[in-house]
Amino acid sequence: MLYANPEYQRGKVWKPAQKKRLVDSVLRGYPIPLIYLHHISKEVDGARREDFEVIDGQQRINALHEFKEGAFKLFDPVVDEEEAQFPSFITQQPCEWGGKLFEELSPALQTQMLKTELSVMLIQTDAPNEARDLFIRLQAGMPLNSQEKRDAWPGYFTDFVLKVAGKPEITKYPGHAFFNVVMKAKEQDRGEFRQLAAQMIMLYLARRQSGRLCEIGGMRSILFTTRIWTLIRAR
Question: Do 132 and 150 have their domain in common?
C-alpha cells in the first residue's frame, strides 16, 4: 500500500551516514519532519484498493525500515567520531545504542523506536499532477550554506565567532571593533566576516594546539576546531 512513484521520485539516494543520523535522532527523541502521502483510492469490479504514494519522506521511511531489518549499525559517537561528525556535547553523553544493530538494542529501545509516532500529512486529490507539483515544491527548499551551518553549530566556538564578527539581528552579538570600525562592516557583509573570523580563529587554535596550520573549509574543520577549543578550555 505504501510506495514511491518511480515516474517522478528518486531512488534510494541517502548515504549510510544519513540513515544512521536519522535513526540516532529518533532514539534521542528528536522530532522528524512531516511525511507527505498521496492517498489513492480505486474501485475495480466492485473491489476497492487503497494505496499511499509517497510524495515526501521516502528516504526517511527506507532508512527506518532498513535499520529495523538489520541493514546497518548505528554510529558510536566516540568510535565513529570522524565520520559521524556529532558536536562535542553529544560525544560526551552516554549512548546505549552506539555501534549496534536493531536486534542488539535493549527491548526498551526497540519498543521506543517501534512506537515512535511519525507525523503524516495525507493528500487527497484525483489530479496526479497536483501531487507532483507538491513534490517539486517540497524539494525546492534551500539547504543551509556553510555560514548558516556554522551559526547553528552548538558549543563555545560558535558563540565566540558570533561575538567577534557580530550578528546585528541579535543584540548580544554587536561584533568587535576590528570588524565594525576598521573593516566598516555592513549588515550584508556579516556572513562573510563571520566566515573570516572563524577561519582566523581556527588557524590560531590549530597552531597553538599542534604547531601546524589546518585546512579551513567545510564542516570537518569546524568539528576539528571545536575539539581543539574544548581541549584548551578543559586545561
Answer: no
